Amino acid sequence: MHGLGLTCFPNIISSIENFQQFKTFCDMGGGTGCLAVAACKANLNLQAIIFDLSRIEKHTIRYINETSSDIRNRIRFQSGDFFLDTFPQVDLFGLGLILHDQCFIIEI
């Protein structure tokens, strides 16, 4: 999934109209954080949170540490389960590659 994200996420982010208006972003189920990195590269004022299970954090941190310091300093990891835990307070949520293997009904 990381490789696919590296390829498609920059294009997806660039297609979001008025993306510069957002100040905070949460990459839900963010894995290595490639969506958050793409978002921070596209918006130099953006602060990002990668929200994923605690067992993923070491992989996320390893990838984030490979990015430039101006990107790395604007991204943090928050442990959580999007089915159970409270979401961070942000302007925009990204749901990249997390719903492909889920089967559930959302009640509105």
Outline of the structure:
With 108 residues, the protein is an alpha/beta fold. It has 4 helices and 4 strands, in the order αβαβααββ.
Question: What does this protein structure show overall?
Answer:
The protein is of the alpha/beta class. The protein has a single domain (2-94), classed as Rossmann fold (3-Layer(aba) Sandwich), CATH 3.40.50.150. Helix content is 32%, strand content 18%. The chain is built from 4 helices and 4 strands; from the N terminus they run H-E-H-E-H-H-E-E. The chain has helices spanning 2-14, 34-42, 57-65, 69-72, and strands at 24-28, 47-52, 75-79, 92-94. It has a 4-stranded parallel β-sheet, covered by helices on one side. Helix 1 runs parallel beside helix 2. The longest helix has 13 residues, at 2-14. The model is unreliable at 103-108 (pLDDT under 50).
At the first level of CATH, the class is Alpha Beta
CATH topology, by name, is: Rossmann fold
- The number of distinct β-strands equals 4
Shape descriptor reads: globular
Unreliable residue runs: 103-108
Question: How is the biggest beta sheet arranged?
Answer: 4 strands, parallel
Order of helical and strand elements: HEHEHHEE
Query: What is the CATH superfamily label?
Result: Vaccinia Virus protein VP39
Number of helical segments with 4 or more residues: 4
Mean pLDDT comes to 84
Head-to-tail CA distance between termini:
29 Å
Number of domains: 1
